[in-house]
Amino acid sequence: MSEPQIKKSLPGDILYDPSTLLSEEDPLNKLNFDQVLKLGPGVTYQNDQLVAINAGELMVNQGQNKIWLEFDSKRYKPSVHDPVIGKIVGRQTDHYLVDVGCAFPAMLPHLAFEGATKNNKPNLNVGDLVYGRMTLCHKDMDPEMECYNSDTQKSQGFGPIVGGTLVRGSLGWSRSFLNNPKSILNTIGQQLPFEVAIGVNGKIWIKSDTIQNTLAIKRILLNFEKLDQSEWEEFVKDELVKVKNLD
């Protein structure tokens, strides 16, 4: 099969019509329309068709059977199962309020953590960071999130964030690391040990074994969006050499 083509759309464009046969190069061929299809930002369902509501580049995730449009936006618009990094901004009787960058704080139940019970649950304070995923995203309801996978009852990397540093960028910047993580993060990981949590809301958390390594990784990630492929590869090499010379 040929390489999937880059597909750009404008508001009102029909992205998928079940009565129309897809071309061989169409990225939508990666999706299984016989299973539940997850719709991300910029896409809506109208009259049995998938329709663009924003201008942007069509993106698909075969593993999640998800479709969305990549577009510049200053405010994050949540979608179900989006991984996000948020800051606790309030404590209520049975839930926390978490700023994830959208119009309203997300509700995070006290028991929405792996193994949490009424007598044994994380005690978070205002200002603490958490890594979780969105579970309710409806225009007429406050958004909700969880810090574990409620389907498996396992954390799967979600939970309270301790230490490290938070890196902020555009929404497209953070999503790019999730869409093509191997060529970018693996390059760094071959030289420096580090942990990473990627939120599609323009936030990435990193933690390495030393402050110098953490700051070097931060510089690399922040410059990724500013440089083209050839410039970025050279920049990474230079940064890694600088870190090694400090050891």
TrEMBL record:
Keywords carried by this UniProt record: Cytoplasm, Exosome, Nucleus, RNA-binding, rRNA processing
Domain K Homology, chain residue ranges per copy: 164-211
Subcellular location, principal: cytoplasm
Residue span, Exosome complex exonuclease Rrp40 N-terminal domain: 37-75
CDD domains: KH-I_Rrp40, S1_Rrp40
InterPro entries: Exosome_RNA_bind1/RRP40/RRP4, KH_dom_type_1, KH_dom_type_1_sf, NA-bd_OB-fold, RRP40_KH-I, Rrp40_N_euk, Rrp40_S1
Pfam family, one: Rrp40_N
SUPFAM superfamilies per record: Eukaryotic type KH-domain (KH-domain type I), Nucleic acid-binding proteins, Ribosomal L27 protein-like
Location(s), subcellular: Cytoplasm; Nucleus, Nucleolus
One GO CC term, this protein: nucleolus
GO biological process: CUT catabolic process; exonucleolytic trimming to generate mature 3'-end of 5.8S rRNA from tricistronic rRNA transcript (SSU-rRNA, 5.8S rRNA, LSU-rRNA); nuclear polyadenylation-dependent rRNA catabolic process; poly(A)-dependent snoRNA 3'-end processing; TRAMP-dependent tRNA surveillance pathway; U4 snRNA 3'-end processing
GO molecular function, one term: RNA binding
Family: Belongs to the RRP40 family.
Protein name: Ribosomal RNA-processing protein 40
Organism: Conidiobolus coronatus (strain ATCC 28846 / CBS 209.66 / NRRL 28638)
